[in-house]
Structure prediction request, 286 residues.
Amino acid sequence: MKTSSIKTVRLPSGREIPMIGQGTWRMGENRTERQAEVDALRLGLDLGITLIDTAEMYGEGGAEIIISEAIAGRRDEVFLVSKIYPHHACHEGTAQACERTLKRLKTDRLDLYLLHWRESIPLEETISAFLKLKADGKILDFGVSNFDLSDMEDAARIAGGEQIATNQIYYNLEHRGIEFDLMPWCKERGIPLMAYSPLKSSGDDKHALLGHLALKKIAKAHSATTAQIALAWLLHMGVVVIPKAVKPEHVRENLVVADIQLTREDIKSIDKAFPAPNHKVSLAMR
Ligand SMILES: NC(=O)c1ccc[n+]([C@@H]2O[C@H](COP(=O)([O-])OP(=O)(O)OC[C@H]3O[C@@H](n4cnc5c(N)ncnc54)[C@H](OP(=O)(O)O)[C@@H]3O)[C@@H](O)[C@H]2O)c1
Prediction:
């Protein structure tokens, strides 16, 4: 059954992006997981989670191939995001990497193409290559990822930099540094943020966030899970969330987040348990 409860936010181009999507990091790496991954993405689409986030890096193209299988015959339903390796992001390299990505995804266009992180290739070159791809209709919007405030300021000074549609960053309850400077800067310019690793669910301390007592209490009051509350808080902060889920129950749970309304009291308890910093914190990355 489809649902239309997922809100959208407007990109600077005027196009709308859904606020809940599906991440694909770690997909396409293991043959035995392949069918479960395709099924999870298809289930998400069936439920109305139409934004899919990927990167040429994920499984070295493997995730894009998984996605091509999941979206076969239904490309027009999907808001497709991929990312380019920074070492490919020179003028020629960007065009070539995009072609490879489109080929793996079996599509003729990306909705959004992001520079995965900043390295040594001048931003001028990458942005000019993105503009060319946009003019050719191969990408409908472009943006960046893992850009701290100073990177955004550098990009904004470049011709075409004003077309940057989004910045995809590491943002969750335990990493609120962007609220001090990057988030207000982007908000002022109408640039929506995309929160990656919204559940902080990989790494050594993967259970620390979802097991937090404050989240458990709020979750209980909403008959929800702690993961749902962590995602609902991100939506409350106005950012796009792209949790990665292979288990069907997780895909279903993540959709329901669209309907959770956190109360003022919930927000107060969250701020107490996970305070936002009152000073500059360098952007965290993983
Ligand atoms: N731009 C970047 O540099 C960058 C970096 C990292 C990630 N990303 C993007 O952001 C996406 C999300 O980040 P992530 O994959 O690092 O971490 P995440 O989405 O925070 O966590 C994924 C983990 O959470 C579990 N999960 C999903 N929904 C859940 C739920 N409702 N309840 C409990 N557990 C749940 C998943 O389990 P199952 O899979 O078993 O269901 C998986 O183990 C990535 O897949 C990728 O597309 C971008």
The mean pLDDT is 96.
